[in-house]
Amino acid sequence: MSEVGHTVEGMNHGEQLPLWDDAADEPAGVRPRRALDETRPAEASVAQASVAQPSARAAHWTDAVGVFDLETTGVDVTSDRIVTAHVGLLGPDGSARSARSWLSDPGVEIPEGATAVHGITTEHARRHGRPAAGVVAEVVGALRELFAAGVPVVAYNAPYDFSLLKYEALRHGVAPILDPTPVIDPLVLDKAHDRYRKGKRTLEVVAAHYAVPLVGAHDAAADAIAAGRVAQALARRFGLAARVHELHTQQIGWARTQAESLTEYFIRVGRLDPTDAVDGSWPIR
């Protein structure tokens, strides 16, 4: 969960930036950008070209990464609701090439505990947020666009965000993303490649460890962008040169192994019954 703060409050939700520039060879910001729900002929091929050829050298998955984060009413993926969301695209240097952020009226009270994390009150969400069904549909659509173009989507602790989005989609009659692919989860990668490092593995701590600035933690946009840059930093640090779909498959196994290890620890310290287990499903539950 991340705090949204002032960046969402003044946002004009009718003028969202698209996930793609209008031309593959044109720097971001040179021409006005179109909204995601505007269409034109051959848009899919333009989107694919913009990520397939970021430079003259062979493309690597870090050359173009999608980023995704949700801030919510709580931590139960089956029943809690989206309050804010961010989907964006980063270039090879970690710069934000395009972005969309949403503020939703979740249709339920936002608990004080959740507000303390992300800063959004029930009153603010009702006054400034858009209906949840429309927000959920647009977030799902933005992610589908990235996946369709073969762009990996980075989400820190991916099963949380993708699972909660799935249940929100089902709740509002939107076709859910049931098999998000390819996904990059910096939490799984960090645990797999620096297994014995002591300390917490929150996004703030891990970002600091890899010298990635995170200003305004618990803001959906700030967290999503920081997670994307952490993923790129991990790739550089540990030489993660596998093709992105192969890396996606590797993370499934790593996440399962990490859950088994955590289960053993929780049982040993009395936090789980011997018959219980931590769910290691990844990247969605």
Q: What percentage of the residues does DSSP assign to strands (E)?
A: 5-15%
Overall 3D form: globular
Radius of gyration, CA atoms, in whole angstroms: 19 Å
Q: Assembly state here?
A: single chain
Q: What does the main sheet amount to?
A: 6 strands, mixed
**Mean of all residue-level pLDDT scores:** 85
SSE pattern, N- to C-terminal: HHEEEHHEHEHEHHHH
The helix fraction, in percent, is 40-55%
Number of helices: 10
Strand order of the largest sheet: 4-3-2-1-5-6
What would you say this structure looks like, in words?
The structure is a single chain. By secondary structure, the protein is an alpha/beta fold. The protein has ten helices and six strands. A six-stranded mixed β-sheet has the order 4-3-2-1-5-6, sandwiched between helices. α5 packs across α6 (about 160-170) and α7 packs parallel to α9. The longest helix has 26 residues, at about 245-270. The two termini are about 15 Å apart.
Give the arrangement of secondary structure elements.
Layout: H1 6-9, H2 43-52, E1 65-72, E2 82-90, E3 96-105, H3 112-118, H4 122-128, E4 130-131, H5 132-148, E5 153-154, H6 158-171, E6 183-184, H7 186-193, H8 203-209, H9 220-238, H10 244-269
Parallel strand pairs: 1-5, 3-4, 5-6
Antiparallel strand pairs: 1-2, 2-3
Helix pairs in contact: 5-6, 7-9, 7-10
Features:
285 residues; alpha/beta; 6-stranded mixed beta sheet; globular; disordered N terminus
